[in-house]
Amino acid sequence: MQIRLRIGGAEATARLYDNATARDFASLLPATITLHDLGGREKAGALPRDLADGQGQSGYRAGQIGYWSPSSDLAIYYREDGFRIPSPGIVMIGEIETGLDTITDADGNATVSIAAA
C-alpha cells in the first residue's frame, strides 16, 4: 500500500510492507501525529492506539518506518549512526520512497498528516 506523508507544504511518499503491523497501521489512516526528533537519527511520534505486534529487529536503515510497541510510537529513520534498537526491537512497517528530506528537514515538533495515496 502506498501512503502520503505531509508536513506543512512538503510531501513524502512511502510504501507499507505486507505484514500484520503495517496492515493495522493502515487501518488508522488518515491520521495526524506530532513528530519529535530522537537522537538525530529519527522522527518519532505517538500513535492513537497500540498496533498488532510483530517481529522486532535491532537494526534499521535510513528511510524505514517502524513501530515501537513499548510506547506505541511511529518512527521514521532518516540517518544511520550504528545505533542498535533495544529489546523488543522495532517492527518495520514501511519505507519512504520519495521525499525523505521532508522528514529530515522538519523542525522541532512537526505535525505530519498521513493518508493512503
UniProtKB/TrEMBL annotation:
Q: Where is the Cyclophilin-like domain?
A: 5-114
> Gene3D superfamilies, from UniProt?
2.40.100.20
- Entry's InterPro entries? Cyclophilin-like (IPR041183), Cyclophilin-like_dom_sf (IPR029000)
Pfam families, per this entry? Cyclophil_like2
> Matching SUPFAM superfamilies, A to Z?
Cyclophilin-like
As recorded in UniProt, coiled-coil segments are none
Name this protein carries in UniProt: Cyclophilin-like fold protein
